[in-house]
Amino acid sequence: MHIKRPEKTRPECIQNLLALRDSLELLGGKWKLLIVLHISCRPKELLHFKKLEKEITGISAKMLSKELKILEENKIVTRTVQNTRPVTVTYTLTTYGQTLIPIADALQQWGLHHRKIIKGK
Amino acid sequence: MHIKRPEKTRPECIQNLLALRDSLELLGGKWKLLIVLHISCRPKELLHFKKLEKEITGISAKMLSKELKILEENKIVTRTVQNTRPVTVTYTLTTYGQTLIPIADALQQWGLHHRKIIKGK
DNA sequence: GTAACCACTTACCTGGAAGTAACTATGCAT
DNA sequence: ATGCATAGTTACTTCCAGGTAAGTGGTTAC
Description:
Chains A, B: Keywords: DNA-binding, Transcription, Transcription regulation. Chains A, B: This is Helix-turn-helix transcriptional regulator. The structure is a homodimer. The first copy, chain A, has about 120 residues and is mainly alpha-helical. The first copy, chain A, has a single domain (about 30-120), classed as Orthogonal Bundle (Arc Repressor Mutant, subunit A), CATH 1.10.10.10. The first copy, chain A, is about 55% helix and about 10% strand. Chain A has seven helices and two strands; from the N terminus they run αααααββαα. Chain A has helices at about 10-15, 15-25, 30-40, 50-55, 60-75, 95-100, 100-120, and strands at about 75-80, 90-95. In chain A, strands 1-2 form a two-stranded antiparallel sheet. The longest helix of chain A has 19 residues, at about 100-120. The relative contact order of chain A is 0.12. Residues about 5 of chain A have low confidence and may be disordered. The structure holds a DNA duplex (30 and 30 nucleotides).
């Protein structure tokens, strides 16, 4: 008699869809992962507020400020005031925030591939 | 003499931020990754439109229909009309769509962890 | 013939995401 | 005292993702 293979239903993954909702709620917007990836990619000299604003094409000071505040509240970035003149503020990823890098990278790679599939077609 | 270590700036990743924007534009909404994960987790019998609508808590027929259409246009899901009475329509992930599963899983895991860090605190 | 089921679609509406522009506060330079 | 730089904030506005509710078209069951 033929033993039925279990359907590959991955039941474990369904239980915690709330977790995916949480992630999407926090990170699903237009800017947050972009900011995280930017910070992860840049040398220290480019992590000032003004530099980020210039380098992240299209973002406004208002959005950058707002998003950074949320990221800070969620322990993803650290805000550090430097005693330069005029004062500058640098933003860096926390160790915890660095756990987002593989995810952002993966999404980026996927997007790169997707371009070829969809737009290159 | 001490040899200076290169800053870990990962310059390669900055070039293609457009790709991340693309991914976020397509997948950054409230429902798409949730739908993908749902389809990936469910046995065939639960992949009908009506079943999906019931199982994905909070989604409306309108949103489900709209999102599935976009996913189909992007070659992520396949729409199959079954000749049952009344006709049912099943949605499955394409091979290409399956490349999103690791990403959705990773985001889900991250969200699970994040709950503990932020809300459990 | 009417009621029920499936798979949507259409019309209408609203809250919040996001944009623009101007403004604040602080300190330095000339 | 005027101008410039950093790091934001505030006020005003627009737009659209997403919600609600009702309707459509096809088929079967009674």
